[in-house]
Each structure stands twice: as C-alpha cells, then as structure tokens.
Write a structure and sequence with these properties.
single chain; alpha/beta; eight-stranded mixed β-sheet; six-stranded mixed β-sheet; 7 helices
C-alpha cells in the first residue's frame, strides 16, 4: 500500500525569510524518511529568480541532503518526469501563485507532483508555495491586490499565508469568507506551518514562539477563528 504524501504549508519562514533560523527547514528534511534526502526547489512563482535559487543552495548545501532545482522559465530539462521521480522533497518558493499555477499546468508539472505526492513524497513551501496546495486562498497575484484565487485543490478549503506578517491579510481573509468568495480554511502566521499527512492535518509547528495557525470559518453570520495547538520547534 503506498505511503501517504505530506504537505507542509508555511505561512512564511524558511531559508528565504529566516536565514538564521533553520527550524522549519530542519523539520521539513526530517519528514523525508531518508538519511540524505534529495530536495528540489521550485521557484516558478518568482520567475526562477537567480538570487532566490542561490539562497536555496546556500541554505541546503550546509544540510545533510542533496539540493537541486527545476527551472521552468528558461528551457526546462528534457526529462522533467525523471527529475521529479528522483526527489524526496519539493520546496516551493513564494511569489505569484497565478504564475506558478500557469507554468506548472503548461509543463505538466502539476500532474507529476500530484503523482509524487500520492507516492509518499513531501511537498512544502511558503506564501505562494503554501497556498498552491489548497482549493483556493488569498493572493496578491492580481494587480498586487488581495483577491481570491483558485489553486490546485489537493487540500480542501481555503488558505491565507502571512496572517500576522501583512496587516491587510487577516481582514481580507475574513471579508472573503464572510462574503462566500472563499470557503472556510486555514490561516498561518509567518513562522507557522500546517503539516498534512495525506489530506488530514497532522500537526502545526512553528519556528517562532508566538507564531500560530488558525481554523477560520463563517458561523451564524460572522467569521470566527480558532487558534490551533502549535508546537514550537525551538
């Protein structure tokens, strides 16, 4: 029987936001069921920016793992399927969720990643790399305004990253749920990560003592949020 895949959805954090705090990235590596996991960075949401890719290598070349990246903006490798099949972990960077989804679908990467996830691989990421796995969520991909966006739908419900990191995120998410533009879902502060095994929320972990994740839904005409138990990794 195949192992359930995992998704670790960070509201914010990891090597690009907390370069001196590896707690979330260490946690991701520990889930791979391999003493030296192969980890692939997917930076399409940022246009595969070279500086972002360099930060990834600077962080993970110091870890017990084998880092690589898959670039879709320039000519991708001829054997994308082979690259995907060799990895244990896929780490998705932040940026434009809309651009990320367009690229993945154009090159068939969404299909290959879904197969890898169902085969027991670990998917993770922050911001766009956190939102993309859900049915929908709050995104600034359209004209730099916060709007609802439809995502991959591997996880049901909606998602809002950067819940405490950007002042407009929380009120925008509440308004979208109240209006019915988004279904109920999960919000995550910068430094908090929702860890799903299969499609079930397994636990919430954090790289910062005060970071939290929340279940947010409409109830009797108003929006309510419930703080989820969170394990500080420090």
């Amino acid at each position: 029987m195949p192992r359930a895949g995992q998704i670790i959805a960070m509201g914010g954090g990891g090597f690009s936001m907390e370069p001196a705090n590896p707690l979330l990235d260490d946690y991701v590596l520990a889930q791979a069921r391999s003493p030296k996991p192969r980890i692939c960075f997917l930076g399409g949401a940022s246009g595969d920016a070279s500086a972002y890719v360099e930060k990834f290598y600077a962080a993970f070349s110091q870890q017990r793992c084998e880092p690589t990246h898959l670039n879709l903006f320039r000519t991708p490798p001829p054997d994308i399927e082979g690259v995907v099949d060799r990895q244990h972990i896929f780490y998705v960077g932040g940026g434009s969720t809309r651009n990320l989804l367009v690229l993945w679908r154009e090159w068939g990467l969404d299909r290959l990643l879904r197969r890898a996830w169902r085969g027991g691989r670990v998917m993770c990421g922050l911001s766009a790399g956190s939102l993309c796995w859900f049915h929908s969520g709050v995104s600034d991909s359209l004209a730099s305004e916060l709007r609802p966006i439809r995502a991959l739908g591997w996880l049901s419900g909606s998602h809002c990253p950067h819940y405490d990191g950007e002042a407009e995120r929380r009120p925008a998410y509440h308004a979208m749920i109240a209006s019915g533009a988004l279904p109920a879902g999960y919000a995550a502060d910068d430094g908090a990560a929702l860890h799903f095994i299969g499609t079930r929320l397994h636990r919430v972990v954090a790289s910062r003592p005060q970071a939290r994740a929340y279940r947010v839904r409409a109830l009797n005409g108003r929006v309510v949020e419930r703080a989820l138990d969170t394990q500080f990794l420090g």
